Amino acid sequence: MNYCSVDVPYTRITEHKYFSPWEQHDGSVCYKEYSRSCEENDIPYYPIRQMGEMALLEKYLSLAENETNITFVGRLGTYRYLDMDVTIAEALKTAEVYLNSLTENQPMPVFTVSCTMKYTALIVTFNRLGKLKKTVEETLKLEFTNIVIVNNGPRMGPKPGFRQLLIHESLY
Predict the structure, then answer these.
(1) Where residue 141 falls among pLDDT bands split at 50, 70, 90?
(2) Are 152 and 126 in contact (CB under 8 A)?
């Protein structure tokens, strides 16, 4: 179960017995996943967007297009963060492409999906102009094509300066 609320300190709870519902279980094991920033000695499990990475990705894509007998798939192979529903859909599509390549006696393509997607940054704020300004400044350094800011602050509207920040750097 995923939790996407600022009121809940963890992001996910998993109860392992549901991975094999056909089995009988005398007990169960649950764990809670807590989100935190990756630190110096940690192994990063999610992509960390860096300046210049899209140019480097374009070089990798050019090199990959010249390869034969290999197909790049999944999170690592296509350099994208994928949710599970997208992962499953792309795996099914790749299987279909593979079966078609066998019946038509054609080689598999290097990619079965586009890797040159545009990135959108979504920033959710709660009328905290100071933190939002710093976040937007850091986000502008990365290679996002769109920045969407959602203000979940009180209904009384944004604090003074909020609208000017949205217009800054032609975000909208």
Answers:
(1) low
(2) yes
- The C-alpha atoms of residue 128 and residue 6 are separated, in whole angstroms, by 14
Spatial distance between the Cα atoms of 108 and 101, rounded to a whole number of angstroms: 6
Distance, in Å, from the CA atom of 39 to the CA atom of 77, rounded to the nearest integer, reads 25
- Quote the percentage of the chain above a pLDDT of 70: 66
> In 3D, which of 55, 52, 50 has the Cα closest to residue 38?
50
Return all residues near 90 (Cβ < 8 A) that are at least 6 apart: 73, 74, 82, 112, 113
Buried b / exposed e across 48-86, counting CB within 10 Å, b at 16+?
eeeeeebeebeeebeebeeeeeebbbeeebbbbeeeeee
